[in-house]
Design brief:
2 domains; alpha/beta; 12-stranded parallel beta sheet; about 450 residues; about 45% helix; single chain; 5-stranded parallel beta sheet
């Protein structure tokens, strides 16, 4: 098994199942989502729970599914259905009676936590603490993996892996060289959950056992303690890059097409997830800005187009001027022995800020505005008597993301068009209104006929 393919496959499966579950749940509209900053669910629920926030704690029993997104979600109670999560960290200390599908920085099962069926996890660190268990199959793709008791098979790929419990079936995995890095040490985000430390390499605890076969791929052969594997152990040496390049040249046209299709689906689904998280964040923390910009785009499409085109021209003009000024200042700085260095720093900082704002509006806000307009219309076809901002966003993003995924037409033209309209609408909404401008005059009511 190619480890690079397997890791991508596991992460892709996580995202795919999450999106499929959202799409299947959307027509039912069972309940409105719970949103907020710090959310605590302390009362038992006899329904599905949709929850989106920064910190989510579920101390109650949920008789249904839980679909959540945020920084961290901690489950201390019992969930009778599935759990689907995307965010920084999912910590399960209680019981999930069905499947768990999660993508995040840390996916952790605490001591004595249990998942009744499959666990499908992708992220930096997938951790099963001692005493935790998975009643079905474990699928994972991570930089490091700590595996406890799994009733059926395990299938996945990681740079580092440690087995401390029993596996009731086969183990088909890939392991790297054992050298991995923690991305949190570069981002320095204090809100990120802390990942556990797992011993480098492919290691085993004293109670580790595999009832079936062990098939693993790695750049090196690791020592497997005697008696751990009841079946056969098969090791496949990871091929060198040049060997992989030669194999790629000999790959059939059908295999190349399948690989390209897989990559296309992967990018599209992950793009949807990211856009959904940004959209939910804007709905929660900046509703006035989001709704005002959307209403502006709906009411003034042509002015939005005009101002958006002007905004693009101004932006690229500023970029050209800024580059010229920075080069000039650098030359002056050299000539004056560093006297103009502070000016260059200020220009670079200002340019970075302008670029960041422009990119955020055109790359993220603009497609979300288009998605809201489309989604509200689509939702109105299903239910004209009720507004549902979250499901309107989901439905609209499906259309927008699929449209942007169309080669050439979507990836360039439609994305550019969305960006132009969105930038213009945001500008029109945020621009200062003229002081003392009277409100639009209301049409006069027709005179009532005289009586008598």
């Amino acid at each position: 098994m190619n480890p690079k393919v397997s890791k991508g496959r596991i992460v892709m499966m996580t995202a795919l199942v999450m999106i499929a579950s959202l799409l299947l749940a959307a027509p039912a509209f069972a309940s409105e989502p719970v949103t907020g900053d710090d959310i605590v669910i302390s009362e038992d629920m006899n329904d599905d729970l949709y929850v989106f926030g920064s910190t989510i704690v579920i101390d109650a029993d949920i008789d249904g599914d839980v679909i959540g997104a945020g920084n961290t979600m901690t489950i201390n109670g019992t969930v009778t259905g599935d759990v689907l999560f995307a965010g920084s960290g999912l910590i399960i200390n209680g019981t999930v009676e069905d499947d768990v599908r999660a993508a995040g920085y840390v996916i952790r099962l605490g001591e004595n936590a249990s998942v009744g069926d499959d666990l499908n996890a992708g992220g930096y660190s997938v951790e099963m603490q001692p005493g935790s268990s998975v009643g079905g199959t474990l699928y994972y793709g991570a930089a490091q993996a700590l595996i406890a008791d799994v009733a059926e098979d395990i299938s996945g790929g990681s740079e580092t892996a440690r087995l401390t419990g029993s596996v009731g079936g086969n183990a088909d995995i890939s392991v790297g060289s054992g050298e991995s890095f923690d991305p949190n040490q570069f981002f320095q985000n204090p809100e990120m959950p802390e990942a556990g430390t797992i011993e480098p390499g492919f290691t085993f605890g004293p109670d580790a056992s595999i009832a079936g076969d062990l098939n693993y791929t790695s750049p090196q052969e690791w020592s497997i303690p005697g008696g751990v594997v009841a079946g056969k152990t098969e090791f496949t040496l990871e091929t060198a890059d040049e060997d992989q390049a030669g194999a790629a040249e000999a790959e059939s046209a059908g295999a190349k097409f399948a690989r390209g299709l897989w990559r296309f689906a992967n990018n599209t689904i992950l793009g949807f997830l990211m856009m959904l998280l940004v959209g939910v964040g804007l709905q929660r923390f900046a509703p006035a800005f989001l709704n005002g910009s959307r209403d502006t785009l709906r009411a003034q499409p042509l002015p939005s187009l005009g101002y958006g085109l002007l905004g693009y021209l101004v932006f690229f003009g500023l970029v050209a001027v800024a580059v010229g000024l920075v080069v000039l200042v650098i030359i002056l700085s050299i000539a004056t022995s560093g006297g103009a260095g502070s000016v260059a720093g200020v220009l670079s900082l200002a340019g970075t800020a302008i670029f960041t704002v422009f990119t955020f509006v055109t790359r993220w806000v603009a497609p979300i505005l288009m998605a809201l307009l489309l989604g509200e219309w689509l939702y109105g076809l299903i239910n004209k008597e009720k507004k549902a901002p979250f499901w309107s966003l989901v439905l609209g993003l499906i259309v927008v993301v699929l449209a942007q995924a169309i080669p050439v037409l979507g990836g360039f033209f439609l994305s550019l068009l969305f960006g132009v309209f969105g930038l213009g609408a945001v500008f029109l909404y945020l621009r200062p209104k003229a002081a003392g401008t009277p409100p639009a005059a209301m049409p006069d009511k027709p005179a009532e006929p005289a009586l008598g």
